[in-house]
What does this fold into?
Amino acid sequence: MSCNLLPSIRLNDVVGLKNYLCPDLKTVQDKKESDSSKDESPMSDGWDEDWGEDWNEDKMEEKSKESTPDDESEQEVDNGNHKWLQECDVSISPAADIIAMTKQDRLVLLAPKYDGDSKGDDTTYFHTVWSGSITMEPGEVVTTVLCLPLASQKRSTQGAPDWTCVLVGFSTGFVRMYTETGALLLSQKLHTEPVRKLKCNTYTPPRYLGIAEQHEELVILYHKALVTIDGFSLYQALKACRNQVARATASGEASLQPPPLAYKKWSPQDMDSIVDCHTTGVSTPDPFDQMVLASLNSPTSTIRPTPPAASVYLLSGMGPYLGFFYAIEGSTQPILSEVAFAVASKLKSAFMSAASGWLGFGSKSKTDSNVDKQQKIEPATPLPLRFSLPDSRREGLCVSLSPNNIYAAITDSYGRVILVDVGRGIAVRMWKGYRDAQVGWVEVKEDDNSVHKQSHTAQFLVIYAARRGILEVWVAGNGPRIAAFNVSKHCQLISMSHGILGLNNVTSKGVRIKAFQVALLDADGLLKTVLVPFHLALSDKNNERVRDMHLLKKIKQALKENTEESATLDSHIRDLLMNIKICSISQQGIDRVLATKYLSPSFMEGILKACFQRLVVQGEEKLDIEKRLFMQYCHLQICLIHLYKAINQLHSTAEPIHFDTQALSVLLGLSESEVEHITSQVDHGDQDSSKQTGKVRFESDTLLHVSNFLSCFTCTPHVAEVETTDQTGGGTISLIKELPDDTKQQIGIFLFESCLKYQGSSGDIGAVLKNSYVPVEQLLDLLIWTWLNDSSLTVQNIPGFFNVMKIIVSSMDQAKVVVDKQSESPVWQHVRDLCSHCTNSKSSYLAAIVARSVAMELFGILPKRRNVLDASAKDPDADTVSVTSDTISPTVEGDTVLYDVELWNTLVKQLEDLVCLDMLLKLKPLSSQRLSTEDEITVSVSSLLEGGKGCVTEVIARHVSRVGFRPEDLYRVQVDDNSMSDDKTTSEPSSSSSSSSQNVVWDQMNVLRTRFPHSVENDVLFSNCCWEYSVLWNKQPEEVEYLKSALDFLRLVQNAMLRQGVCSMMWHMFLSKKFQTLAYLMEKVGKFPKDRLCRKEIGIGEMRLPLFIEYIYDFINTIMEANCETNEVPVFNIEPLWSQVRGSVSLVELAIDQKSTNYGLLSLHRQLAILMNAVISFNIKPVRVVSLFDSKGKHAFFQDLHAHPLLPNPNVESSIAAQRKQFLTRVITQSVLKMRELCPVTDAANMESPPAYSSTIRTTEAGKWPDLILQVADELGVDTDYLKRHYVCELYSAGFDKLAEEILLTVNDRSSLGQQLLTIVGQRVAHKLTLLDAQMVVELMSNVNPSLSTWLKSMNSKLLIQSDMPSCDIQALVTQTLNQLSEDHHQHEIALSLVELVQVL
It folds into this structure.
């Protein structure tokens, strides 16, 4: 958590490196060693010296004054051995892959190499890979060096540079570039003065959106000039030169001279000398600065609409101390003149060499050309000074720019370090006493894992004071010093101001641009990098909260990165918490520790005690209100951890429960028979619930970790108590109000399980809970909640529940618990509310009994147990005494019952009724395969009281419809003997298991009828069942069986007024809209609609639509029957125990209030239903059923059944009458065809007697239609005699002669019928003749009347449905036809002739 110097690189063979770069030091050192070896005596051990003389200070001073020049030279050699590094130029590649060291004319290149001897060392060892002299002209020395890595274009490099170029500046003005192996790539002289500095600007990703990307460029500084080379052109040139050198090396040929680089040269004006420079890249000034600058230059200056972009150069030196130079982008620069000059020089050399033979001065010309070439240097372009920081006596030595280009640090000759704001151009800070100082910058990003959020960055200035031997780290701007290190006085500070050349916004992703930012290289060859954590930038007072928030993030990160606790984690977390100064943030860190799952209670307690003790040692007088509150918070959390440990200890010592009925009766103040009654009720409910599928529970589900335990509570220190002398006291611990139910149940089981489920000591748990700071009201609430929501707790768990409740309630304010006899205790009222709102009837029933007994004991009331026990001893039926009987009602003086106990008795009786009701809700028929898509029905006392009068009935009916109970499943004896007698014989159970299940339902219904005599009354229950089935069908229209079940229950309602009211409500709510939609849909398409259209408009598929319209017809018949009956208005009562109900009106009361229906309107809808059913059943098309009615009928359709609109009369228009007649005729024809399909001729031949045969045909589905059509025809005013004649003819055509003879007797127009039957006889005789031999047919025809023969030939037997009939049936039909025709009929003679012909046949 502090600033560190981390060793990362070590130079191998430092002595050899020093001797090579500084040979003069090696010569002096060798001379010193030879002289010391000559003077040294082999026997001299120092014992013969005079110690007294040595301790004489005067002589020592004289000795020091008389030191010889050899001693001074020896001291200089010792200092030179350490100062050799500071005399060299050192450059390290940003990728840390190469180090270049130069002095005079020598260059040494070092690269990392694996060293097998460095086991367990994290440092990287660098070995010399190349060394040699690189000067090419006499008197030339190296002045500066720069290692520049070049980016790779290959993706497989994973961000590493392709290679590193070593740039070297010389005193002759040359700049030469080498490979890592020392091969020369490029050499060019850009200016005549010595090169002072080489600096490079490389690509860095934008710090935020909208900032412009900086151009890459190389900056070469001379004494009076500044040369810049574009980064892209430099990258391409170096890449091409390296490839050329590689090819020349491979082929063995001399490499070609590469073309010179294109560059820009500037000559800074108004500055005496230049020592160092740095560029901030291209920047655009804001309009305000542009206008200020224009006003300073001239009052008539013009301002460009767009400020010009310019490259900003910071130059340090003398006169002025620091100068700001702006090179406007877009100005013309002579960057190609050098290229043109090189081409001209080559042409000139070729011409002079060709003419040297006859002119005789070729060698001199060559020498002159070389001189001209050396002297030809491009002139510099003047660069004006924009503004400066003047200081006439001081010289700026070094300029170091911060990574964000905001600040620049300048060192000078007077031992100062000045921090300059680059944007404003002013000095913001100054350090003095730093002679020969070296500076560098470290940029640190905040540890933020957010991807989409911009990370914060901090700038740190590193100052190395060589003369003082100290390295300091300062926060940029006006920040404090955050670290200081004592280091050697002979080091060199390495600062990385550039990165990898050739990157862009695409290739820079995932690339580590710099291996380090600032490092310190000492004379022993050890390189240490400077590591600064981000939070140190927040160490000043103004950033105290931000710093603490950063430490809080460190805590969260440390807890997240670890998976188990350890001593290292403990010390790390404590260190972080101890460094946080703001108590509120410390509390957040504590909360994070307490919420960590893998930490143990002891670990958490140790952290809390450490934080608490840190504030205690400060002294009470130094603690403010915030620190006192934090101390209380830590103390409360420690109390919770102690509570957790104590409860765990109680769990480990708990024993199983031993149940005793007699002890329980004494404890509750009840008789043993009453306890047995309670046990039987609960056990019966458990048997029913055990049939349900259980939920899998694991052991880990019941375990509660300390972090989960602590998360259920909130610790609230009390402000009023922090002024007291005891900082550990005060405050409250409370349960979180909005805890999830599962978590609340888990914390309750953890606290009370040792007493509820095991034989734990109630006194121990009571003592533990009393010592906690949790309010007793919340403990009581949690205890009741745990009991009510745990179904595994039964009668045997009552003793522990009783004792814990008694201890908790006794600890409360007794004024709220024990009140006078006419008042209501708020504590017990709250408990009653919890029991009445609980949907677990068994648990709430037992909780009410226990709470009532605790209340009675606290009231000091003893029930009359003695009298009950005596009575039970004498009365053999005493075991049947209910727990809700009046014998247990407690009394006080004067036999006045306490109001609170009366409320308890009422609640216990209601909960016992609820237990019985809940038992029924868990039953379902074995034959039911229906999967309920709804949640289980849950009831409570409060829901029944707030649900209205009919709530109990509605709950039962909803359960009946949900599981699929039929009417016969609910009653052992049917209500309606006429309608249900047949069903009773067919619904007998076929196996013992189904019979047992059916008996359980019947018995439970009998119990409910005893407890709810009014709510489970037959008519009330059947009406509600009908309604619930209708609601279920309305949700799932495709399941029309629900509608059938609703009609089955509806028919069982005995009271006609109630039945009629329920029908009216069903019509209005569910049936009318769908019936209307289907009718108009059939009217629109003119036929039975297709499946897709049916599902879209009605929600019922094509296959189930016939059943729907049939049930509509049955429904209308049911309501018409109810309309014809007369009954008294029923009276609906409610049980006295549930008389406090409130809420909506019951269903039966709404049904009674419905208006009486209009029988004529019902009859009209019945006619429409019959016609629609006929179309659907026989698929008749095209026909429009609504158009068969006149305008009055259309207007009356689908209105409320109690309305009285104008109804149609039989006298309608002739066109409508003709359509009705035609449609009904087609229905009769289709029904007869269907009858023939259902009863083939073979079955008719096998019939024993004609009456039985006719009865069988009439009972078929198709056989019912003719009679129904005749009935509708009579209501519609259609000629029924015509339809009967048509029906008789169709029956004879289909071969149903016996049935036709029965219908024939009801026909009035015998003449027309006889003529129609004569045609059928002729068709049958014609078919019979076609079956005879031709010769026989000729003989028969020759003996008959010619008119008869001609008439028979005109008959078409194919028009008959069944043409092949027995001769006896033909003869009977002829006789019947003759009887129908009168003697004066014109076809009477043909009928007589047919009689004779049939007799012959």
Observations:
- The chain has 52 helices and 31 strands.
- The first strand starts at residue 4 and ends at 11.
- The two ends are 127 Å apart (CA to CA).
